[in-house]
Amino acid sequence: MKGQEWYQADDVAQEYDDKRFSRGGQLIDRREKEAVLDAIVPVEGKNVLEIACGTGRFTVMLAERGADVVGLDISAAMLQQGRQKVQDADLAGTLEFLRGDAGRLPFPDDHFDIVIAMRFFHLADDPEAFLREMRRVSSEQIVFDTFNRFSARSVYNWALPMGSRLYSKSEVATLLAKTDLTLVDVEDDFLAPYGLYRSIPNALAEPIRNLDTAIGGHPITDHFASVSYWNTRVRSPASN
User: Fold this and answer.
1) Region label for 176, one of left (φ > 0), alpha (ψ between -120 and 50) or beta (otherwise)
2) Which of 8, 56, 58, 184 could form a disulfide bond with 82, CB atoms 3.0-4.6 angstroms apart?
3) What is 4-233's CATH topology?
4) Beta strands 181-189; 227-234: pairing state
């Protein structure tokens, strides 16, 4: 995985949410959570694994809505931030944080109903291997996002602390075919890249986001979106 040492540093974990999801970044947080909920609701009673759960943004949200969630991450510092969030949360389901490697998941086959991985595949050095492992432990559904090659993100990707793996739609389609996953839906968003929203106040980010949403709602501009949210289903043996 790219940037493992950077990601696991204590100071990175302590500042992670504030740097990425404050100011205009609140719009990113809201949109990502919306994408996850759109894909998997209703979540009550579902058994969910989140890969690379970080500080627990999605794990806590899903547990609050009645899911039984395991959040797995390689960073002990990130997991500690997640555990602190739980202290203030009103959970209807259950939530457990585990430190582990996404390439060797410590769970039996088909153990979870749903596996999600947000902000993960841009760091993957072998995305097919990771997706196969996610497929192994999921009995129903896998939801993930990718950063897109033909987008504004490609302009500044080189300047990021650990860079990003950028994907074309055809590359993801090939990954899904190789791992026996069926595409249910894909949502494309954010013509303006995440980095812009994180760097400006919310009052300025809101009108930019409104314009972004209006322009990005057309089929032609969708091709230049910075991020795609993928909703996939595990193929049943009868469909193979």
Assistant:
1) alpha
2) 56
3) Rossmann fold (3.40.50)
4) antiparallel
- What one-character DSSP code corresponds to residue 52? T
Angstrom distance (rounded) from CA 147 to CA 153: 8
Name the nearest CA neighbour of 8 among 133, 118, 101, 138. Answer: 101
The residue written with tokens 């910075």 in the block is 226
Closest among 217, 232, 61 to 146, alpha carbons compared:
232
- Residue for token digits 């302590």? 14
10 Å CB burial of residue 197 (0-12, 13-18, 19+) is: buried
237 and 149 Cβ atoms separated by less than 8 Å: no
Bridge partners, 148 (sequence order): 167
Q: Hey, CA dihedral for 96, 98, 103, 109, is it positive or negative?
A: negative
Stretch (H or E) spanning 41? none
Q: How far apart are CA 89 and CA 162, in angstroms?
A: 32
Q: What is the CA radius of gyration of the chain?
A: 17
Q: Count Cβ atoms below 10 Å from residue 18 Cβ, excluding itself.
A: 10
Contact 40, 106 (CB under 8 A): no
Q: Which amino acid is at 113?
A: D
Q: Which of 9-13, 24-28, 150-154, 181-185 has maximum average pLDDT?
A: 181-185
The pLDDT tens digits of the residues spanning 32-78 come to: 999 999 999 999 999 999 999 998 999 999 999 999 999 999 988 88
Q: What is the DSSP letter of 5?
A: H
The pLDDT tens digits for 145-165 are 999 988 877 766 665 555 678
